[in-house]
Specification:
By secondary structure, the protein is of the alpha/beta class. The protein has a single domain, classed as Rossmann fold (3-Layer(aba) Sandwich). The protein contains 8 helices and 7 strands. It has helices spanning 17-28, 56-70, 93-121, 142-162, 180-184, 186-193, 200-205, 217-228, and strands spanning 8-12, 32-37, 47-50, 75-78, 125-129, 168-174, 240-242. A 7-stranded parallel beta sheet has the order 3-2-1-4-5-6-7, with helices on both faces. The longest helix has 29 residues, at 93-121. The chain binds nicotinamide-adenine-dinucleotide. Nicotinamide-adenine-dinucleotide (NAD) binds next to helix 1 and helix 5.
């Protein structure tokens, strides 16, 4: 029997990219998975649950749904995210509000409402998919970078509060991963940097990577599975950085 059998996880943004790979991996490891998304994929991994996590009440509803379906909740993966690339003087205020709601307030609310279940688990795991942009900045991403720095701080706080209850909390900080979120920003990056689109991957996206390769979603899922499992129990409160050498400089 897998060590993860009988456990239950809630994964946000589970219909695409990293969230989908994480939901697939946790399910393959034996967990029940609630796959929360704005546009859930009925053929994707886990039990789909449609909701907009920028609505504060939706986060409590997602936790309630997982408890009603599975009777327990051991792992929260706060992953759903969007990006907006724009110089600060043109940055739309409503985009700032949406990004902060999804990238920072949603993880807070998920922790807030799942905390009693994570305490009962005995080995609760709260994992936010932050970003290398939770540690360092790049131009034209004011909202994303501010929110990602915030969620790194949230995980540190949760690690301290969770320690007495067997709960670990980690912010995972990947460099660029091959997903639609990256593909969708190529046009905006080209405009903001004044470059043709076919030069954006090499000159903007992979420029800060020491290793000039995109990370694969399944590779991030492997790190999540490790942290969610018994061998990950001493990792808490410190950013878990998988950044192709970005922050080594
Ligand atoms: P993606 O665009 O492939 O998937 C994001 C998912 O979130 C989508 O299924 C989308 O429907 C869902 N979502 C968006 N808004 C939502 C909302 N309001 N409510 C519920 N669900 C919503 O993106 P991805 O690249 O897999 O990114 C996942 C996470 O990883 C994000 O938090 C992102 O910031 C982070 N991240 C990505 C990269 C990268 O290079 N791709 C690097 C570091 C961190």
């Amino acid at each position: 029997m897998s060590a993860q059998q009988d456990k239950a996880a809630l994964v946000t943004g589970a219909a695409s990219g990293i969230g989908r790979a994480v939901a697939e991996r946790l399910q393959a490891d034996g967990m029940d998975v609630l796959a929360v998304d704005l546009k859930p994929d009925p053929d994707g991994p886990g039990t789909p649950f449609e909701t907009d996590l920028t609505d504060a009440r939706a986060n409590e509803a997602a936790v309630d749904e997982a408890m009603n379906r599975f009777g327990r909740l051991d792992v929260i993966i706060a992953n759903a995210g969007i990006q907006h690339v724009s110089p600060i003087e043109e940055f739309p205020v409503e985009k700032w509000n949406t990004i902060v709601a999804l990238l920072l307030t949603s993880p807070f609310l998920l922790a807030r409402y799942s905390w009693p279940a994570l305490k009962s688990s005995g080995a609760g795991r709260f994992i936010a998919i932050a970003s290398v942009h939770g540690l360092v900045a790049s131009p034209f991403k004011a909202a994303y970078i501010s929110a990602k720095h915030g969620v790194v701080g949230l995980c540190k706080t949760l690690a301290l509060e969770g320690a007495a209850h067997g709960i670990t909390a980690n912010a995972i900080c990947p460099a660029y991963v091959r997903t639609p979120l990256v593909e969708k920003q190529i046009g905006d990056q080209a405009r903001a940097h004044g470059l043709p689109e076919d030069e954006v991957l090499e000159k903007v996206i992979l420029e800060p990577h020491a290793v000039k390769e995109l990370i694969e979603p399944s590779e991030v899922a492997g790190v999540v599975a490790f942290l969610a499992g018994p061998d990950g129990k001493m990792f808490t409160g410190a950013p878990v950085t998988l950044d192709q050498g970005w922050t080594a400089r």
